[in-house]
Model the fold of this input.
Amino acid sequence: MAERTHQSQSILVVDGDVLVRHAIADYLRDCGYIVVEAASTDEAKTVLSEATLAVDAVLADAETSGSLNAFELRAWAAKHRQDVQIALAGNIESAAHKAAELCDEGPHLGRPYEPQSVVDYIKRIIGAAG
Done:
């Protein structure tokens, strides 16, 4: 199988704040990624369940709403989409509390997003998985 180029790598951005989601999604598109957006963890789960859609990484706000919180979405993806790398972003204090409830690691990135930090982190997690 041929290695996918940077321009064919896809990122699912999950954030309930439409302005923030669009801004980081546009930045990632400008960096050459294919970007899919979801406003909730339920939408993200639907996207990840679609067998025909390739997703390399997920950038999810730890505060995103839905039937699952972002940490539970990461746990679901670990069982159902082991090929997808998950990066969580959020307010460290509130996200750490949610993570502690699940005995999970906290967010990987802080909000507000530092766009280049997001790109650098996504490159690292996709590279480590490849």
